[in-house]
Amino acid sequence: MILPNGAHVAVVDGEKLALFQNAGHADIELKALPTPEIEDRVSGAPGRISSDANPDNGTQAEDGFAMGVADVLNHMILTHRVEKLLVIAAPKTLGQLRKGWHKETESRLVGEIAKDLTGHTTDEIAAAIQKA
After folding, report:
1. Structural element, H or E, at residue 93
2. Residue 66 pLDDT more than 80?
3. In Å, what is the CA distance from 130 to each residue of 2, 11, 54, 118, 125?
4. Pairing mode, strands 85-89 and 109-114
5. Hey, how many other C-beta atoms are within 10 angstroms of the C-beta on 60?
6. Considering Cα of 120, then 63, then 2, then 5, what sign does the dihedral take?
7. CATH number of 8-36+52-131
8. Which of 20, 74, 106, 126 has the smallest set of CB atoms within 10 Å of its CB?
9. Is residue 48 classed as helix, strand or coil in its secondary structure?
10. CB 113, CB 90: distance < 8 Å
11. What percent of the chain clears pLDDT 90, i.e. is strictly above it?
12. Residue ranges covered by each domain of the chain
């Protein structure tokens, strides 16, 4: 994948968000950005029993975190702080993020990679983007 210069990269799983910006032109050169505050959006009532139809608190927390990340990324797009966005997320998290995208965010996506790369180095993330 060719990542445009200045594009932002969000690397997300159910608990963490890491933001980068591509400073490279021909090659991908990721620069780490500060991580914004993510609002807790855990849904569901406490004390419920876990099942396929009624997910456990851990699953609800991960889904709530993903929705909080979607809110933050939507805000960054709508306030023109991000022009182009690549999202790399664990497959389940990516599904939750898609549910929360604003139409403008969808239009600014330059790509999505369904892979959990949180905790990886910037070089490993850049290599995964180039292979995509």
Report:
1. helix 91-100
2. yes
3. 7, 15, 39, 17, 9
4. parallel
5. 19
6. negative
7. 3.30.420.60
8. 106
9. coil
10. no
11. 72
12. 8-36+52-131
